[in-house]
Amino acid sequence: MVTYQGGRRRESFIFYGFLLDLVESNNIYALGENNKNLADIIKILTEGIVNTTIKSDQHPELMARIEAFILPLQKNEAVWQPIWEKLPDNHKVLLSGQYQ
Length: 100
Fold this sequence. Notes:
The protein is an all-alpha fold. Helix 3 crosses helix 5 (77-86) and helix 3 (38-50) packs across helix 6. The protein is built from 6 helices and no strands. The chain is globular, with a radius of gyration of 13 Å. The longest helix is centred in the N-terminal third of the chain and has 17 residues, at 8-24. It has helices at 8-24, 28-31, 38-50, 60-75, 77-86, 89-95.
């Protein structure tokens, strides 16, 4: 697991961008067969926000990419419900717009 101290924050930021590159290009190895890895991908991305590795004021482009990836999934109940059920409560708070 990546630690989030010192120089590791920059590496973590690069990791999140690369993960988004993979999912935006519909990489089967990242998404998994039948998109079975979507919940894990959402969890990884939201963890970066929850633990403040990704900050909206410091990483606006990355935040916009995360939102552009997640919002369409949230609008599709059949896709979103199984993802939602697998997320930790603090990630659910973030995704419901109640995160501070």
